[in-house]
């Protein structure tokens, strides 16, 4: 036979051979696990559309954190569901706000865990938008002040990283200046720089009780059809002082993750959002897919696309499965 062709299968011949040439790997340190802290007592509600994800009140946080630490998770991302909401989202920047209290608790009891605080108003405003409003308009500059207050109060509570997700223009510049002025020069900003107006956030809005009461978020979150806009958003955030760039959602936007990874020199974070999680869970529950294999493939695909870090509700399971495989 004088056929000319390459024998790619040589490097796939056994599990050890495949491991030898594997290009991308998942590690426990790659994952950031979102937590929903509910103001109140004795609350541990499973989110119906997000099986395995719970809203927990402070009195359940110790147990939840022990489980998280036992799994080997190193970083958590905190969302709060306040007992009271108002027009201006006062509980977002209150000294005793739910995220501030949870941050203090975690940093006292589990000091080595990295606390990332989500900085947004939508869970705290009565109208459910990420900024303040006038009529049905979401006001940009007026919202910045409140977001700065939120970030500073989170840093005061001990947050290791501030993660603003509100998509107002100038939020990185404003928050950086506010943190510096308050003395938090060393607290980094993980910016949700590239955040699309996505239907995949549906289950999260149930979990965080933060759905907008009117309209949608399309005047501040990005159009899913756009790629160059992602460059503009990332450029301005880096120029304003972002230390990390988040691309969100993950699965339908891995091309954008690769673009951002290739063009910027800060760590790239992908947010594997609630709707992506719910789809996998639902299909797995029906026995239509193998959950373990699917999740590990999905998360590996995100790293291959260029993600340095992954925010994911699958973190506990993924780390458990990775340990089993070793
Ligand atoms: C709040 C926020 C949202 C998510 C993270 N922060 C929802 C939204 O913008 O409507 C979504 C996360 C997920 O779906 O898992 N601004």
Structural overview:
This protein is an alpha/beta fold and 326 residues long. The chain has a single domain, classed as TIM Barrel. The protein has helices at residues 15-20, 61-71, 98-109, 141-157, 171-181, 202-208, 228-240, 254-263, 274-285, 291-304, 315-325, and strands spanning 31-38, 44-46, 54-56, 75-81, 114-119, 133-134, 137-138, 161-164, 190-195, 244-248, 268-272, 309-312. The strands form two sheets. Strands 1, 2, 3, 4, 5, 8, 9, 10, 11 and 12 form a ten-stranded mixed sheet that branches. It has a two-stranded antiparallel sheet with strand order 6-7. The longest helix is centred in the middle third of the chain and has 17 residues, at 141-157. Bound molecules: ligand PBG. Residues 118, 120, 122, 130, 165, 201, 204-205, 217, 273-274 line the site of ligand PBG.
